[in-house]
Amino acid sequence: LRLFAGIIRYWHEKNILSNEIKITDTLKNALVYIEENLDTVTEAGIAKYCHISYNHFSFLFKKAMGKSFSEYITFLRLGKAENLLLSTNKSITDISIETGFSTTSYFISKFKKYKGVTPRQFREKIQNTNLCWMDSAQKGGVALSNNPLFTYHI
To answer: C or N terminus of the chain, fewer CB within 10 Å?
Structure first.
């Protein structure tokens, strides 16, 4: 639910959601179900779960969320993949499987489309950034937390 609330808050701040649109209880339940079943959820399955037709669900979803179901799922899966790239040493293939992408090549192409870099480049860029900041801390920087990204020179 926190993820859902954060997304809605972000979209509201960016004026992506119209003030006129109300998210129904049906859609709220659908969003919770999507988050809990992200790896395997399908649009037809969620429509059935909500006891409405596929077409009606698609219409309601796009109207309320400003994105198609598949765009939304891709958005969530890529967010989960980004977190796994940052917090684990799992292979790109394992991450693509864990986040529900059908093939590794499809995952890589979607990641590059949305993030501008491949998952490997993303991970390397973050690791290099962390190493630069850690080097900075060792050369007289002040670490303000255990996170090397928060190191400053005085």
So the answer is: C
